[in-house]
Design brief:
Largest interface: A-B, 28 and 29 residues
Helix content of chain B: 40-55%
Radius of gyration of chain B: 20 Å
Strand content of chain B: 5-15%
CATH class of chain A: Alpha Beta
Mean pLDDT of chain A: 90
CATH architecture of chain B: Alpha-Beta Barrel
Distance between the termini of chain B: 38 Å
Order of helices and strands of chain A: EEEHEHEHEHEHEHEHEHH
Mean pLDDT of chain B: 91
Helix content of chain A: 25-40%
Number of domains of chain A: 1
Oligomer: heterodimer
CATH superfamily of chain B: Aldolase class I
CATH architecture of chain A: Alpha-Beta Barrel
Number of helices of chain A: 9
Strand order of the largest sheet of chain B: 1-2-3-4-5-6-7-8
CATH class of chain B: Alpha Beta
Shape of chain A: globular
Number of strands of chain A: 10
Structural class of chain A: alpha/beta
Largest sheet of chain A: 5 strands, parallel
Strand order of the largest sheet of chain A: 5-4-3-10-9
Chain lengths: 256, 383
């Protein structure tokens, strides 16, 4: 079976989803269901982590989904670490999507602070999935300090621009020894399929699903695209060439 | 970097109203169509001028559609809710449009820290996790010590604590940031130098340049959120909007880690304040034009709306780019507990309860967001 394995845990679905930007918790729950996902990320700043009746938390069935808290909003390593520890103390969850985004406009991840936080959190027993720019060396540095994945962005978060960082993503995928989850900027199911065809191990999608007119159906479309992309990758797609390669060669009559 | 005062002066945005009115009048329909066909969300003075021009009024529906679409993309289908907590209406200033003007005679009220916490608990019980501490210029009582002490006590309850208070030094803001305050709202009131001087005849607020520099102090202190605005009604709103945008643009360039939000406070009737004073009132149509134009120039700015505006208008504005609104507000110290009959800063128009407002947000297809920040981010020390 073609399982996604992160930190020793197996998953059938290679689509991770986010919980922000939905018009209601009901729409969010329905989209999660239709996405087929097994990993759902939640911004710690957005939920009341100590409250079981929190709208968002109570809409996510923890027996079916791995809840992946994220540190969205943290401006430096210290803030991310403080938030992660408070959340773990309240819930016991050790998995963490590490986000350190000091720029409030494009929300691009800070490489220096992310690496610093990752090193401390890994030592502290967290399973760290860091959100990073598509920087191959940073990906290796994070792998070296023991992160469970790397999560390079396809384009700025929420921008729906697709794989703008393609060249760097290809290198990251080629070199990685941990799963590569392409995160941020995937605006259409075809973008997700594209990332999977390239060999990404998984993708994470939020805005494109949450802000669609019909989030549940869009979630389903992403699910199918991720599956299709993965099967295509496993089937060994041929390289893209500039010249035509006819399926009925003109010189096929030459037998020897 | 060139200081904001110099930028405004060189561009004539601190008082050369005639120059800008002439430019605005010259904008044609085809200019507006051109501006609307450019990618939405990025700022240039020319683009904003085109969108807020008299010709722009012919394109309000297109602007509204584009603003809605852009806001949904950047902020999702969500509206954040917050509540103001008024601490004191003692004031050393004499702003002519304000009910708290020191010249006005009425029984003043100020809350002790314990009384403020009692009010805050009532606000929290209504569901709010985002609180705005407001005070007139009562430096001796609502001091930095007072605010730092209050913020520390509010941290366990609120995910976000901001202030809308008299202007401070960078060191004072830094101290409050360390205590848990993460945002500061400070309106320039008016960017027109002469109008500013006439509306602020005395007190420490009467210095236009000092006021204009204060957001630099806020940003230098690492505050995450800087709320800007002009009190709409004191000068030509179109020129105010341009100066406001230049101010925001300057701050974004100079302080890359602070997030800017805009408010659109239209002057409201207040105790002892004659509405005849407001010679530049703007109607709903132009308010919509200003809100949508700013959204189309600042894709990620927070756009904030208070209960000054009436319910129906607020409900309709939710879809035009607004990201954060207050609800159930009391604008007098002690107003929530009902212990005091203190004078309000301005008359609240939308008197609906927070729950009613949240229901309206849901009906509009948005999620009312009570908490979108966390105490782990408040203050730079562990508690």
């Amino acid at each position: 079976m073609d399982k996604l394995v992160i930190a020793g845990r197996e998953f059938d679905c290679r689509l991770l989803v986010g919980t922000g930007k939905f018009a209601s918790c009901e729409l969010m729950a329905e989209a999660i269901e239709f996405s087929g996902t097994e990993i759902v990320t939640v911004a710690l700043r957005r939920v009341d982590i100590e409250n079981e009746n929190d709208d968002i938390l109570s809409a996510i069935d923890r027996s079916r989904y791995l809840l992946l808290p994220n540190t969205s909003g943290a401006r430096d390593a210290d803030e991310a670490i403080r938030l992660a520890r408070l959340a773990r103390a309240a819930t016991g969850i050790e998995w963490l999507k590490l986000e350190v985004t000091p720029d409030p406009y494009y929300l691009l991840p800070d490489p220096v602070e992310t690496l610093r936080a990752a090193e401390i959190l890994v030592k502290d027993g967290f399973v760290v999935l860091p959100y990073i720019n598509a920087d191959p060396i940073l990906a290796k540095r994070l792998e070296d300090v023991g992160t469970a994945t790397v999560m390079p962005l396809a384009s700025p978060i929420g921008s729906n621009q697709g794989l703008q960082t393609r060249a760097a993503l290809e290198i990251i995928i080629e070199q990685a020894n941990v799963p590569v989850v392409v995160d941020a900027g995937l605006g259409l199911p075809s973008h997700a399929a594209d990332a999977m065809e390239m060999g990404a191990d998984a993708v994470l999608v939020n805005t494109a699903i949450a802000t669609a007119a019909d989030p549940a159906q869009m979630a389903k479309a992403f699910k199918l695209a991720v599956e299709a992309g993965r099967i295509a990758f496993k089937s060994g797609p041929r390289a893209v060439g500039k010249t035509a390669s006819a399926s009925s060669p003109l010189t096929g009559f030459l037998r020897d | 970097m060139t200081e904001i005062a110099t930028i405004l002066q060189e561009k004539g945005l601190d008082g050369n109203a005639e120059l800008w009115r002439r430019r605005l009048e010259k904008v044609t329909n085809s200019d507006v169509e051109g501006a609307l066909s450019e990618p939405a969300g990025s700022y240039s003075l020319r683009r904003l001028m085109t969108l807020i021009s008299p010709a722009g009024e012919n394109y309000l529906e297109q602007m509204a559609q584009a603003a809605h679409q852009l806001t949904v993309q950047r902020f999702g289908r969500t509206i954040r809710l917050y509540a103001p907590l008024y601490l004191s209406n003692y004031c050393s200033n004499s702003c002519r449009y304000c009910g708290f003007n020191k010249e006005n005679e009425f029984k003043r009220t100020r809350l002790t820290i314990d009384e403020a916490i009692e009010e805050a608990n009532i606000i929290a019980a209504k569901g709010f996790r985002d609180i705005l501490l407001v005070s007139s210029e009562d430096r001796k009582f609502v001091s930095t010590d007072y605010l730092a002490g209050l913020a520390k006590k509010l941290r366990p309850t609120f995910g976000s604590i901001s202030i809308e208070i008299y202007q401070m030094s960078s060191a004072e803001y830094a101290r409050l940031f360390a205590s848990g305050v993460e945002g500061v709202t400070l309106y320039q009131e008016t960017y027109d130098r002469r109008a500013y001087e006439s509306y602020h005849p005395s007190g420490s607020k009467s210095d236009y340049d000092c006021r204009l520099r204060t957001p630099d102090n806020i940003a230098s202190a690492q505050m995450r959120e800087i709320g800007l605005g002009a009190l709409l009604g004191l000068a030509d709103w179109r020129i105010e909007a341009l100066a406001l945008a230049e101010h925001a643009h300057y701050l974004i360039k100079a302080y890359w880690q602070s997030h800017i939000s805009f408010s659109f406070p239209r002057l409201r009737p207040a105790h002892h304040v004659e509405s005849s004073l407001f010679t530049h009132s703007l109607g709903d149509k132009n308010l919509v034009q200003m809100i949508t134009a700013l959204r189309l120039c600042f894709a990620d700015a927070g756009l904030v709306l208070s209960t000054r505006e009436q319910a129906t208008l607020r409900d309709n504005l939710m879809k035009l780019g607004i990201t954060k609104i207050s609800a159930g507000s009391k604008t007098n110290p002690g107003g929530y507990s009902g212990h005091s009959n203190a004078i309000e800063q301005f008359k609240v128009d939308d008197k609906r309860s927070p729950i009613e407002v949240a229901a309206v947000i849901s009906n509009q297809g948005f999620e009312p967001v009570w908490k979108d920040w966390d105490r782990a981010f408040l203050g730079n020390q562990d508690d």
